[in-house]
Design goal:
Length: 258
């Protein structure tokens, strides 16, 4: 199977996007895949979520502006088969800087090409900023597929309809004609509330099979794990959150099969 590049994105913050990127990457690695987590979010939460410090100059920032190779930015994590390209606050300036460059929507794609061709990774998971700025659009242009985490709340459908529109635009304008929506994952699901069930039902009705069967529960353990710099399966392997992300990783692998 060729290396698959997945962008985890939602322009709304606080929907479990980074939690999903980190834990999905860790569960895919635990399932035997060689995984690269690519932190494109200047907040660098995915970086600290796998136990790495935010270090100046460690991100892809200079590479996107044409200095150096992205493969040199890859760092090991404490977890087997899981490597990372970290982020840092400097990446905040990338949206402005990239907008001034030639071919500005394909900078991530160009930088990522040698990484993909190296054959070192089976899956590359990109954690995008919570906006539809230049960095996120770059991730969309570089990705094979898009995974959208949606919080179980009323504004969920608005967020996804905007992403679907954008997806169609990127295909139609030729920025990335083959980009596909590989799935929508419902996050922060609270089985005790009617709202969670209602929103999940509506999203399934609207998007059908694109919505993963597995829902991610709202749990304390899942919220605690990042402060220990560990994905949930390494923080509390037998928790509900770990079980959910392990199931999600299996579902995703089935969908990634050609």
């Amino acid at each position: 199977m060729p290396t698959r590049v997945i962008a985890v994105a939602n322009q709304k913050g606080g929907v479990g996007k980074t939690t999903t990127a980190v834990n999905l990457a860790a569960c895919l690695a635990a399932a035997g895949q060689r995984v690269l987590l690519f932190d494109l979010d200047p907040q660098a939460n995915a970086t600290s979520g796998v136990g790495l410090e935010k270090i100046e100059g460690a991100s892809c920032y200079r590479t996107l502006l044409g200095e150096g190779a992205l493969l040199d930015k890859v760092q090991k994590t404490a977890f087997e088969r899981l490597e990372i390209i970290p982020s840092e606050v400097d990446l905040c300036g990338a949206d402005l800087e990239l907008a001034r460059t030639e071919n500005h929507l394909h900078r991530v794609k160009q930088a990522l090409q040698p990484v993909v061709q190296s054959g070192r990774f089976d899956v590359i998971v990109m954690d995008c900023p919570p906006s539809l700025g230049v960095l996120t659009l770059n991730a969309f242009a570089a990705a094979d597929c898009l995974l959208v985490p949606l919080q179980c709340e009323y504004y969920a459908l608005e967020g996804i309809s905007m992403i679907t529109r954008l997806l169609n635009q990127l295909r139609d304008t030729g920025v990335n004609p083959t980009l596909e929506l590989i799935g929508v994952v419902m996050t922060m699901f609270d089985s005790r509330t009617n709202l969670s069930h209602q929103v999940t039902g509506e999203v399934r009705q609207h998007f059908g099979d694109v919505v993963f069967e597995t829902v991610i529960p709202r749990t304390t353990r899942l919220a605690e794990a990042p402060s220990f710099g560990k994905p949930i399966i390494h923080y509390d392997k037998y928790s509900a959150g770990a079980a959910a992300y392990e199931l999600l990783a299996q579902d995703l692998l089935k969908r990634l099969k050609p």
